[in-house]
Amino acid sequence: MSDLIDDPQPGQNAPEFSVSEISGIVKRMIEGEFSHVRIRGEVGRVSRPASGHLYLDLKDDRAVLASVVWKGTAARLRTPPEEGMEVVATGRLTTFPGQSRYQLVIEDLAPAGVGALMAMLEKRKQALAKEGLFDQDRKRPIPYLPRVIGVVTSPSGAVIRDILHRLRDRFPTTVLVWPAAVQGEKCAPEVSAGIAGFNALDGSSIPRPDVLIVARGGGSVEDLWGFNEEVVVRAVAASAIPVISAVGHETDTTLVDFVSDVRAPTPTAAAELAVPVRTEIISTLAALDERRKRAAGQSIALRRQRLRDLARGLPKPGDLVAFHAQRLDMVAQRLPRALNAFVAQGRAHLTTVGASLRPTAVKQAVAQKSRDLAAMKARFGQAAKSQVERYQTRLAALDRLRETLGYKATLSRGYAVVRGGDGTVLDTKASARKATHLDIEFQDGRLAVGSSPKRSKGKSSDDDPQGNLF
Q: What global pTM score does this model have?
């Protein structure tokens, strides 16, 4: 094949290719020589069109390699590429004849060591922190005695056994386990689905947890990477149920630890944070009950002593009654003399009043009242007459005003009132034409006018300068 594309010697005939033929030859050569390559570089521009494919550039300080990740492969990538990320891409080189360029078809993509992962993690952490997902004012307190605890973890690992054992020792309670992968490609979607699923419970058939524990044992950065995914962080942030993160050991830190309400260094510590110690609560309640009893006994004893002290200061009941009994005896002794004196005083008053009721005095009083009545009657008659005269004068003035303001006074000045046959007042020429007969009221009486004669042909009433109708 190399002989076909070598430059011909002078004087020899050079083979002739079409553009498609030469593009195919180049494509077969590149794909044959570079069918499987591993390339290390920095991720440059990343494009995610609606088709689901990924287009990105791999670059170093001197060159740029266009790359593509097909849709099926992109869905399986454990670490989605981000700009500035140092990666190792595995794939094959091919050409794109439509633009006369070559590109790398990526079949696998992995960060180039822990440093690349940590750089990407720091970048993602800063982006989420700017949104306020890690703010302290978003943190909620954990319920003191949760009735139901939800745990999102692997159901077959040692983590769930440690949590259940610790809860059973401290404070046995209801535990709901949402099975989820805690490592690999399925980790992030299953953990986020578990958090959302617990929040979606309405408590009708399955009780809704009061607190959630997201737990996993220790591991490398790659093993714990699912808990750094943005989908998991946002699921924890959106949870209406308080969340305790217990991912890895005390030295391991993931983004879930920053967004959760409480971070536990280990899954066992998460169980200790979720519930108090039952024996300690019982001991505390017993101590409080004993203090209550002692306080109640002391309070009763103090009040009993206080009552005895007050009782010593009170007088004897016999002494209180004796004073009033003696006073009653003294009043009873004075009562007959007081009654006789009261009767004598009433009799004297009756005699005085009876003496004033002589007939002569009564007649004089009646005569005086009669004179007073006659004088009052005379004053009343004079006042009534004056009042009537005032009303008559005012009525005459109002009648004169009525005559002045009435329409009859207007008739005396040369005006007339025109009424139709039904008695309605006609105030326009058009309404007078329509009337069958008229009734005209003057100052000295009324004049009835019959139907109007037929007008001469061709002459309208509007031609009459006087405006006469008949």
A: 0.47
